[in-house]
Amino acid sequence: KHQLSQHPYIVHCWRRLSMMHIWKIINLTALLSSDCVAFSVNQTPSRSVPSSSLNMGLLDFLGLGGGKAGFDGSCVMGEDSIMSPKSHGTSEVPVQEDLRWDCDVKVADNICNFNRHYAEYRGYWRSTAFEEESKKEYVEKGEIKFYDSNTGKLLFIAPKGRSYEEFINESLSHGWPSFRDEEVVWDDVRCLPNGESVSLAGTHLGHNLPDFSGNRYCINLVSVAGKPVESETE
Hints:
Layout: H1 2-5, H2 8-34, H3 58-61, H4 105-113, H5 130-141, E1 144-147, E2 154-158, H6 164-174, E3 178-179, E4 189-191, E5 196-199, E6 204-208, E7 217-219, H7 230-233
């Protein structure tokens, strides 16, 4: 075994693999420190993805995705076929024309339907009316409901098991609305092996980026800014 580990080709491959991961980590650090913009507010819907976009699939970026074993906790896994091409990108329909919290429709349609890896820019949710309006909803109802921007189906309910302030502070810390297992409505949400979080309708939502507290679903606000359909309000 020792002789095999010292074989010049084995040593070369190991060094190359190590350098690849080091380079990826360096690039990832640069991305996070520069607050790269994924889709600008003025960008028109397109099937192409800008090279300057910030990849939220950090595990996928490092080549360390969840794999077939899936994730711990109550995370419900799904097949990649959920995101197969449909009438409008990965969905049958475009995003709703009047999204909640004044979210940008063009940005939302790009991220939800013509994208598998990229995100609204870090902190985008703070440029919307979300903080003010979500606080009112929480005070009135004790929770905030988040609906699919394409279909209007319920996808997340927060906060659960924590305060509103804790939910907001964690989202501030990570840059995107961040949900925990108990806040996910698994009837219509799935997590793919590489960590991508999607709705069963084919809406790209974000990525599962676990931390020391467990699964953390880092979600684009524009993906969950839909208004509920009638069946969801009954």
